[in-house]
Amino acid sequence: MLELLKSNSSEPSMINNLIIIILSFCLCSLVAFTYEITTQKNPDTNKFIQSLIFIGVISTTIVMAIGDSLARGLGLMGALAMIRFRTNIRNPRNVAFMFAIIMIGISCGVFGVVMAIIGTVTFCLLAIIFKYSPLSILKVAEYQLQFTHNRAFQQEKDMKSLLEKYCKYTVFFDFKTVKTTGEIPSGDSFERYYWIELRKEDEIMELVREIEAFEGVEDIKFRFINENQNQNYL
């Protein structure tokens, strides 16, 4: 079968093209399945998995259509230059999976079957290994902590000690003045933002209760970074 697919002629047979597209679909599905079992679920997971498979098959078809034709390649570059992709990819890990899918599409499109299979299997094994390694981001949840306090708040040291008690690390990254309207003058309230990584995810409610105990603190909000979900605790 591999000998059949090694043909690099400018006009491969229809059977060869069909086999390559099916192979690309299978390899892309393997990468998508690896993504599903190694990534925390969120509302957009299913859409992203489908996109991975679609992009892989489309990439294979495009590369096969171009073949060895320089004119086709330049025409494709001009056509793609007209397209603007504005999707915001928040997780850099997703970019790695997208590049893996494009690798499959290009390798299959140029009939590099052996390299496509080896590259896919290697990438999937590495993704699974990293899931169970100390480098895994799945073991501890990461949050953005936000709360509002008034001008009388003078407990920065106590807040720092509290976060060190419950968090593996904390990063204070933003401080804003709350804009108010009406009789209350602007500048009486402030918002603080932290990146935090909890030592134990089930202690989040205890952390919220202790933050609420600080005088002048209100409107406590958590954003679960890994799932892009907002969870508010007042």
Automatic annotation (TrEMBL):
Family annotation (Pfam families): DUF4956
UniProt KW keywords: Membrane, Transmembrane, Transmembrane helix
Superkingdom of origin organism: Bacteria
Transmembrane stretches, start-end: 15-36, 48-67, 96-129
Record's protein name: DUF4956 domain-containing protein
Source lineage: Bacteria, Pseudomonadati, Bacteroidota, Flavobacteriia, Flavobacteriales
